[in-house]
Amino acid sequence: MSAEIERANAVLVEKGYSAARLIVQKGLGEGKALLKGSEIVSPLSDTSAWILRVVEEIVPPLADLEHPLVPREIRAALPQG
Questions:
Q1: Of the chain's two ends, which shows fewer C-beta atoms within 10 Å, N or C?
Q2: What is the pTM of this model?
Q3: Which helix (H) or strand (E) holds 53?
Q4: In DSSP terms, which residues pair with 64 in a beta bridge?
Q5: Per-residue pLDDT of the chain (81 residues; tens, 9 = 90+)
Q6: What's the chain's Rg over C-alpha atoms?
Q7: Cα–Cα–Cα angle for 70, 18, 71, rounded to 5 degrees
Q8: Number of domains in the chain
Q9: Nearest of 36, 71, 19, 58 to residue 10 by alpha carbon
Q10: b/e per residue, 15-38, with b = 16+ CB within 10 A?
Q11: What is d(CA 65, CA 58) in angstroms, rounded to the nearest whole number?
């Protein structure tokens, strides 16, 4: 598992998420990661660096989450590089 994926999961725990609610896992392909769980409408796949940015910058603390995350809204809020 990459350091970025490990860091993303640590940030999710800090924000109050259990692995069932949100987790980052290794995706298909080199350097890819997948954000998935019950608090996102559908899994979100991209580079592990970008998924880490999503977790750090876009995913709110669990206590502040008003509705499940929507991948297209995430992509609109944090365009890639």
A1: C
A2: 0.94
A3: helix 48-57
A4: none
A5: 799 999 999 999 999 999 999 999 999 999 999 999 999 999 999 999 999 999 999 999 999 999 999 999 999 999 775
A6: 11
A7: 10
A8: 1
A9: 19
A10: bebeeebbbbbebeeeebbbbbbe
A11: 11
Amino acid at 80: Q
DSSP 21: T
d(CA 23, CA 68) in angstroms, rounded, equals 14
* φ, ψ dihedrals at 40, nearest 5°: -135, 135
List residues bridging with 46 in a β-sheet. 33
10 Å CB burial of residue 71 (0-12, 13-18, 19+) is middle
pLDDT the model gives residue 60:
97
Q: Virtual CA dihedral for 42, 45, 48, 49, nearest 10 degrees? A: -90
